[in-house]
Amino acid sequence: MNLEDINAIKKLLSVPQKIVIVPHKNPDGDAIGSTLALWHYLQNKGQEATVISPNDYPRFLKWMPGNEYILNYEKENRQAKRKINEASLIFTLDFNHLGRVGQMEEPLENSDAEFIMIDHHQEPADYANITYSDVSMSSTCEMVYNFIESLGDTLNITTEIANCLYTGIMTDTGSFEFPSTTSRTHRIVADLIDKGAENAKVHNEVFNTNAPSRLHLLGCALKNLIILEEYKTVYITLSQEELDNNDFKKGDTEGFVNYGLTLGEIVFAVIFIENTEEGIIKISFRSKGDFLVNEFARKHFNGGGHNNAAGGRSNLSLPDTVAYFKSLLENYKKALNS
Predict the structure, then answer these.
(1) CB-based contacts of 288: which residues, under 8 Å, 6+ apart?
(2) Cα–Cα–Cα angle for 260, 266, 267, rounded to 5 degrees
(3) Overall pTM surpassing 0.90 (yes/no)
């Protein structure tokens, strides 16, 4: 963050504000962790703050301190709209385009509040008054730590804030495996542990609270895994029927796509998940090395994200989406095998 932005934020927070904090639709660990961490920080500074999630999120994130105060826009629409209308300051975290918030897009666009964006994805839109965007960051939670540090307040990071930030950094770095994990990331994590982050508990809450149905669904997904050796690619499909037969709950497929990359020669892994309620196929892309899945997702599947982790969607049927995907691979054969 530059000095001008830091001073502007300090001025904004020097007086009482009505603040709304928003993650993206279908929020993950980094989105919920960063918004709750910022919520705790602002509450402790005496500000009136509310986190409004566009929709529900996985049960393995609902242990985080402050979770019970998050408003679900879909289920608590009237109260959430009132908070947005009353807001003088709105933070948007872990996304950089208002199209990522689903039904919340219109009320946010119509808001007279000042906006502050904190995000690490590529190609940020220009809706915010203050934009803190850095694609080199491991996570938005790492950026929230930097945000607090830039305001001179790291001594005020509580155990609650530390646990929330640790969760987002851990999940968005693939438990510190992804290339975006830097020495700075580890130094921040060390400081969070010193400030009370319970690293073993966080890991257990996120990864070791499976229902039997999720493991059955994982078995189904792995059974559906297809290897395309000539393209060093694997893909997984999950139909709506398979989801229903395994009592699918939001978040149950989190991490499934990563299993493909555990195969030695594979550099590109994809999962296609049918969602008949929304009428789309949801797609997650992962890669190793220099194959840029964000560009692939943006060009072909209305998506985007990071160099090695991205998402997209298709309006075709599941078989037609897979067929289209396979038809594209010949154009990328050299890049996938380089």
Answers:
(1) 261, 266, 267, 308
(2) 100
(3) yes
